Amino acid sequence: MKIFFATMLVSGMMFTGCGLLGDDDDAEPSSTLKASATSSKDGVVYNVTGPDQGAYDLLKGEGVSLTSPNASKDIADGEAEDFTTKFFTANGAYFIEDIEGLTYSTSAGEVADFSVEFEDVASDETAALEVGDVVIVLLNEDRGATAELALIEITAVTEDSDADTNDGSIEFKYKLIDID
Q: Minimal CA–CA distance to 136: which of 148, 121, 152, 124?
């Protein structure tokens, strides 16, 4: 009889989720927004006055030339004179950077939460970027895309080799994030 009662007690706890396994009813969820991310892609933005593409379309995953419409320039080198190692935008996107705890491996839901929490400090340009910096891009909603955000990690920064070549670049990996 004791074995039967103990079995029923344990079974009842398993079905009701009682704290045998260390449940914490007061635990905060790691994310309040539901979101999903695409697989990681690589991109590069070159000095806008150089021979290579000085802007990048995050939605299409391709470089964009200076003569292309601004609507596709989510990220750009916007300086006509000097390469500054900063991201600018030509289409109304915004950047959020310097968020403590944000890494490229942060979950899509947590990135979405950060984008809401820090939206008031979003800017249309970044500070000078360095390898390892992580930036959230609030994509321009007028583009009609399903993704609202992009998460970027800087993987390489190359200064112009000299004033005549304009060959500076910022390389990055990124993933698009759709808030459900």
A: 152
Neighbours of 159 (CB within 10 A): 12
User: 103-117: string of b/e by CB count within 10 Å (b at 16+)?
Assistant: ebebebbbbbbbbee
Q: What distance, in Å, lies between the first and last C-alpha atoms of the chain? A: 51
Q: Which amino acid is at 154?
A: I
- Joined together, the tokens standing for residue 78 give 């916007």
Q: What is the pLDDT of residue 39?
A: 92
What average pLDDT does the chain have? 82
Please state the pTM of the whole predicted model: 0.80
Residue 96 makes CB contacts below 8 A (sequence gap 6+) with 114, 115, 118, 119, 121, 122, 123, 135, 136, 138
8-17, 132-141, 164-173, range with the lowest pLDDT: 8-17
